[in-house]
Amino acid sequence: MKFSPRKIDKGFICNIGMVAALIGILGGCIPQAQRAIAPPQPSSHVRSGAPDLSRTSDIVSSYQSGYTTDANIELPDNYDTNYFRKVRIAAYFEQINFEDPSKPGSLDNHALNTLLENEISRTKRFIVYSRQSVAKQKEGAWQVMHNTVYDEQNIARNPEWLLEVTSILGRNKRSMRGYEEAIFYIRISSKLIDYRTMEIVHAFPPITEKSEPKKYFVSLSNKWIGGFKIYDEGQLMEAYSEAANRAIAVLVNRVGNYFPCGGRIIGYYNDRFSINKGIRDGFAMKQTVVLYTNMNGVDVPISSGEVTPAATKGSGRILHWKDDPLAQEIRRKLTINSQDYLNTHEIYAVSVGMPEQWEY
Description:
By secondary structure, the protein is α+β, with helices and mostly antiparallel strands. The chain contains 7 helices and 14 strands. Strands 1, 2, 3, 4, 5, 6, 7 and 8 form an 8-stranded mixed β-sheet that branches.
């Protein structure tokens, strides 16, 4: 895929004053206010067939303010009491391809895999089995050398799910007024595979993320003059990595949302409750939840709440009771004698999206 050199009119070539102005821009000598008054506009010379980068993928988190009305208190997709615990998973960046193989550069597959594993682990939602770590090899060699003894049997555990990721990298170049600009992007496709059956259980929507625009200057012969080093492989890979880091954050957010965490309510007092699950079971931090009970085989949401997890349990507070007869009757019975009611009726709390405070 070829790129045409930028179009520069003859007046620019002949006007030494404008050349001096270009050098001033490169050196950052033009005041910021002046650039803000008259920002450069893209010329019509844009690479044909470039992807639409005006839209990128979103991080989806739950906010308390969204769960203070009846209409929003609904159960999340894919909730399952069998997964109200940490989920075992292994993740792979299976393929990294360049949209234009003739362009220089490569991304370190090992580095991306390690980043993906670390980001999934940070959610506290999963038990992540690393397939990239060299620490195990070094530790194994050390144990053999020093003849250490295992206190327990070294039994390997396998993941329940495989997260397989493929990606395409590319760049969009365009001529601006007085300089060139490049945006580096990544498209990610990913799927969850049942490790036991190798069935593709879920394919996530494609993710497109981009780097910040990189400004640089070239001569009429397309020789680099200054700014971002468009022909330097190290800087190219930094730009691609910038886009990849953002895409991985979005992917981890989607994987976390696909597996809601939850637990059973075991105590209640004055619109506060306790839950039998905590950080070791998949709650990472303060988490918005929906409380529900089962009536005649139907799971019915009754209120929203917020859980603050401890290691093995959590404390919560009610945000909003639904204004319907069932929810209000349960609230009344809990107020009268919560322990008797919870001993004979099951009430669960399930997360609705990644925590609002989750840092990505």
